[in-house]
Design brief:
7 helices; disordered C terminus; two-stranded antiparallel ribbon; mainly alpha
Length: 174
């Protein structure tokens, strides 16, 4: 069905773009066992950063709540515990899916949700369209769309509104 978002295909496309579905991928050069404190490295198949997992916002349950749903006994709700929980591929995927759902709810379409997942929903350029995004994010959204289209057989183009052009001051103000 064209026009109806296949959320599972979207989730899989994000996972392919993030990690090629490698459950043990990390963006850090150090092994996971050596990561401590508030490092910025993303972890696992959904490439989630520990601070995001610990306090995601946007109505998304945190990693601790998700892990408890999988039967984990979570005593500490800190960054190191979040990092440890993100190493479990199932917990990582469940959190990534919940966070992606939050981005879909916030932005209303898959391309802007993918951009927010990659770049961050609070970035100044979000909502300013493709022109406000870094090249890396535009390429990421295109890659996600390509994976999604392959999975669903759709040929939908990327749907990120261009930034509205500003008219020169005074042109129509006379």
């Amino acid at each position: 069905m064209a026009g109806i978002l296949d959320k599972m295909a979207f989730f899989d496309a994000i996972q392919r773009a993030e990690s090629s579905v490698d459950p043990y991928t990390t963006s850090e050069t150090k092994p996971l066992s050596q990561l401590r404190g508030n490092k910025k490295g993303a972890i696992g198949p959904m490439q989630v950063k520990a601070p995001t997992a610990a306090d995601p916002g946007y109505g998304v349950p945190n990693i601790f709540e998700i892990a408890r749903g999988f039967g984990f006994d979570v005593a500490n709700e800190d960054i190191d515990t979040a990092r440890m929980l993100l190493q479990d591929p199932e917990v990582n995927r469940a959190f990534g899916e919940a966070y992606l759902e939050g981005m879909l709810n916030k932005f209303g379409n898959m391309d802007e949700a993918a951009a927010a997942y990659n770049w961050g929903p609070g970035e100044k350029g979000m909502g300013g369209g493709a022109a406000g995004m870094p090249q890396e994010t535009r390429e990421y959204v295109s890659k996600v769309r390509q994976f999604y289209n392959q999975a669903t057989g759709q040929t939908m183009p990327v749907n990120i509104s261009p930034r509205p052009k500003m008219r020169p001051k005074g042109l129509l103000d006379q």
